[in-house]
Amino acid sequence: MYPSRRFGYSDDPWFRIGTFPVSTTAFVVGLGIISMIVTAAEGQYGPLYRNLVLLSEDLTFRGMPLGSVLEGEVWRLVTWPIPNEISFWTIILFAIFYMLGSQIESLLGRWRFAFFLVALTVIPAVVVTALEVLTGVSGGVAGLRMVEVGVLVAFAAQYAHARFWPGIPGWVIAIVIAGLDVLQYTSNRNWFALIVLACTVAVALLGIRAFGYATNLTWIPKLSLASSSGQTATEPRHSRSRRRSRRRDHLRAVPTRDESVTPEMDALLDQVASQGLESLTRKQRKQLEAHARRLRRRR
What we know:
- The protein is mainly α.
- Helices cover about 55% and strands about 5% of the residues.
- It has eleven helices and eight strands.
- Helix 4 packs across helix 5, helix 6 runs antiparallel to helix 7 and helix 7 (about 170-185) packs antiparallel against helix 8.
- The longest helix has 26 residues, at about 110-135.
């Protein structure tokens, strides 16, 4: 892998519990662990599960309607990843989400990563709810599993050649896991979950591209997250510099110089633009990370 800092560590946390920095990733995992404890206390399919998960309108529990977005319970569009079943595999899921999420959060920053997770949650939920109205598709989805797949896809898109144990490239892991989910939902005829999965993968790929990363995936459209000034508000500063430079010179992408970009950093950014992150040594990556932290503090 290409960790930009130690797993789980953030130099820009939301708050701290003692000396532990609570980042967006840590907060989401903590919320999932709390949901398991609550589930153990109230029993499976208790009030937490029944009132938070995303369900179609026709589902019932012991003969009683469970409630749905179409019945006015719009909070389910956001809360469905919170209830998680109690199992060993859920703990493994949390660990993977924590490791990969920490890397993406370090790359994007806490605000953009939080926005990314909200998009992974809300957009698939809105799409499947709309299709429920149009086509009558029914089912339900709950837990962090879908969001984790989205984070994995985003990680693999940015770090396609990062190696997972035992040396398998990240893009292969992402394709295998998403592919197995597609086969499982298809065999179960769980079209509801399949739609949510497809939307999650699409949001993950479009999102990481819109933030200015996964530049090698040119087949994915790059959406513009524009601010009122007409610039891409969520795009990293060095990416905006390269974009402006490409408009001036079609032969070579050169970052725009300013007081924060030294000649050495200028050369590093040029190397990343032309050869990718994989070309950097460990020392060079540390220099680039330190530069990114300084830019975030200045903003």
